[in-house]
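Progress note, sequence design subtask.
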């Protein structure tokens, strides 16, 4: 008898195989069809890998790993370029936290603009970081002025909206961590949309058989390929620096709270993308690997897999599984759309599901309520061959974008 694999294998005559780490978690038909469309592209290397948090997305499936020969699909990278996670352990413990955690949440909200907001006056660390990034940005804008710009220097060190968040968490030993989730903000969105539109325009002139127009791609040597690689790489660096700065501002804001003792931080820190593209070597070839809602999990590499705003999150160490192209999930993954969550759940439901967490408890965050997401423990159980858990975190404060 053939041993049971940890993944489900889907094979089609007209497409590359799909290996899906979805045992014990739902794989919606729409996501499966979207994965198959990606697998039909002629430049897929070996197969497409789907992570346990996989669900339908705009352009390409969220929770997918797409290795490609000499081509990149801008919509698979998406518009939240470089979105990812950062976590830092402090010397604080649960006993150091005050009974009333509301002042901690308010301090974080004052230190880091959320939603569509930017810094009114660019803080010195953000300004200094921007000075280093500005020359490359000006070069990109010089070639593609239609990208436009919305004061990217003022958005360095800001959270954004949607599912982005900042949390104060306790680990399995009651040690205090700060964890956050954000990306390249408005400028990454504009870069993504601009090049997605360019790819669609280019495809319309010479490719007629795309399985989905959102899978328009740039081939190496094509007019806009190198410019896209340059711009997406810059946006990924911007996103990483954005998280670094936010973490600094959060920790500084907590240090000013009199109810907390003095503490140190960055004892352990992880900063990882989960929406990005880069060149990697897999199965004898250098290929472009696009992780759309997936984390690199090379052997020994640290990553972060967050749950919902009422569930556990995990800091993990990669096992370097080659079949997933050394990848793992980027979170729990949505179980339903934002509109469906807003229709289904009430503020009382949300209050019940976030009991014990200092966070917003109003209608504006119902699309982020815990039950809108898959069970993070089922997601983790489906990828034991991809990562091992190092720390288990449970939030006590959550700031939503």
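Output:
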């Amino acid at each position: 008898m053939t041993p049971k694999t940890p993944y489900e294998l889907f094979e089609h005559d007209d497409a590359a195989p799909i290996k899906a780490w979805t045992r014990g978690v739902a794989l919606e038909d729409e996501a499966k069809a979207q994965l198959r469309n990606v697998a039909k592209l002629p430049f897929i290397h070996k197969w497409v890998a789907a992570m346990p948090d996989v669900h339908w997305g705009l352009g390409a499936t969220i929770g997918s790993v797409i290795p490609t020969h000499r081509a990149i699909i801008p919509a698979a990278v998406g518009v939240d370029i470089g979105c990812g996670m950062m976590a830092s352990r402090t010397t604080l413990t649960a006993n150091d936290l005050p009974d009333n955690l509301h002042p901690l949440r308010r301090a974080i909200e004052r230190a880091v603009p959320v939603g569509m907001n930017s810094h009114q006056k660019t803080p010195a660390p953000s300004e200094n970081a921007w000075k280093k990034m500005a020359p490359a940005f000006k070069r990109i804008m010089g070639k593609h002025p239609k990208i436009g710009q919305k004061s990217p220097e003022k958005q360095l060190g800001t959270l954004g909206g949607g599912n982005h968040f900042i949390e104060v968490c306790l680990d399995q030993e009651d040690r205090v961590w700060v964890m956050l989730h954000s990306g390249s903000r408005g400028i990454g969105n504009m870069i993504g949309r601009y090049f997605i539109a360019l790819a669609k325009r280019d495809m319309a002139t010479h490719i007629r058989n795309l399985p989905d127009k959102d899978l328009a791609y740039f081939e190496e040597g094509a007019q806009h390929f190198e410019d896209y690689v340059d711009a997406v790489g810059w946006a990924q660096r911007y996103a990483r620096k954005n998280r670094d700065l936010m973490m600094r501002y959060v920790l500084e804001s907590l240090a000013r709270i009199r109810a907390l003792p003095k503490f140190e931080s960055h004892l352990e820190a992880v900063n990882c993308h989960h929406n990005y593209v880069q060149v990697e070597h897999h199965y004898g070839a250098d290929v472009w690997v696009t992780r759309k809602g997936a984390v690199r999990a090379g052997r020994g590499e640290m990553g972060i897999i967050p749950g919902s705003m009422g569930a556990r999150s995990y800091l993990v160490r990669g096992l370097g599984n080659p079949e997933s192209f050394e990848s793992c999930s980027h979170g729990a993954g949505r179980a339903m759309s934002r509109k469906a969550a807003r229709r289904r759940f009430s503020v009382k439901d949300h209050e019940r599901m976030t009991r014990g967490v200092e966070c917003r408890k109003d209608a504006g965050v119902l699309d982020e309520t815990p039950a809108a997401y898959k069970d993070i423990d089922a997601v983790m159980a489906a990828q034991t061959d991809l990562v091992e858990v190092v720390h288990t975190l449970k939030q006590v404060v959550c700031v939503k974008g």
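The first helix runs from residue 29 to 39. Work on this subtask will continue into the next period as scheduled.
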